[in-house]
Amino acid sequence: MGILGPLTVRLNGQSIVPSAGKPRQLLALLAIRAERVVTVPTLMEEIWGDAIPKSAATTLQTYILHLRRKVTAALRADGPGCGPGRDGDAKEVLTTCFGGYRLAVRPEDSDLREFQSLAVRGSTALEAGDPRAASVTLERALGLWRGPALVDVPVGRVLGVEVLGMEEQRTRVLEQRIEADLLLGRHASLLAELRMLVARHPMNENLAAQLMTALYRSGGVWRALEVFQELRRTLIEELGVEPSHRLQRLHQAVLSGEPGLELEWERAQYAGPSLMRT
């Protein structure tokens, strides 16, 4: 089951993803919350937001029927001998529960769950002082992404929150993987990636700090200072705030060329990028 990119849900090797937008939305939400009941009001909110029509209940049932037909077609792909009774199996895959519906597929078979599991393992390795294992594990987690989450699915209010959470997890894992690579002395090879990331996320203090660190260690002191000034201008213009105290301390350390900058920065990073926001 693929969520980290285009939506993919297969039974017996057959896709059950519908081409129509709203049934696809329903399947995506049911897949993210696999083996959990998704209530009818939640499904309606996803599809229609605040503009729920009077015919919503009937229309929702039609969408569910459409999904079950896709499930039935996939189950019948087993071959001959699969008669009309297979409709009952479809209702076991997409079950009606009190107040909602549940997709009865193993959540651990999804790329989202695998990503989350690898992210925890990588974070644990980093905190335990093993940046090499952390880098490898976190890179494996990031490699599961095939594009933006649910890139081919119309996203309503409920899915929008789910996607935002997944993208935030992805950014956090990326920051940790870069942190591990900095601890391994890979600052020079990180420069191009970090420049691109800072350009994409101009108000992300963690990425800016990592780029400053990589530039400083590569001998680009003035470029590191330039990164800080650009971030400061952006934060003031967009939010009316100064960079965090943590980032200002890093800026001062770069300015003064403190001999222990690298060691102190590495120690701070083990406490987690969240310190950058204090």
Question: What brief labels describe this structure?
Answer:
62% helix, Arc Repressor Mutant, subunit A, 3-stranded antiparallel sheet, transcription, Pathway-specific transcriptional activator, TPR-like_helical_dom_sf, 278 residues, transcription regulation, mainly alpha, Serine Threonine Protein Phosphatase 5, Tetratricopeptide repeat, two-component regulatory system
Overall description:
The chain has 278 residues and is mostly helical. Among the domains are: 84 residues, Arc Repressor Mutant, subunit A (Orthogonal Bundle), CATH 1.10.10.10; 85 residues, Serine Threonine Protein Phosphatase 5, Tetratricopeptide repeat, CATH 1.25.40.10. It is 62% helix and 5% strand. The longest helix is centred in the middle third of the chain and has 27 residues. The chain has twelve helices and five strands. The C terminus is likely disordered.
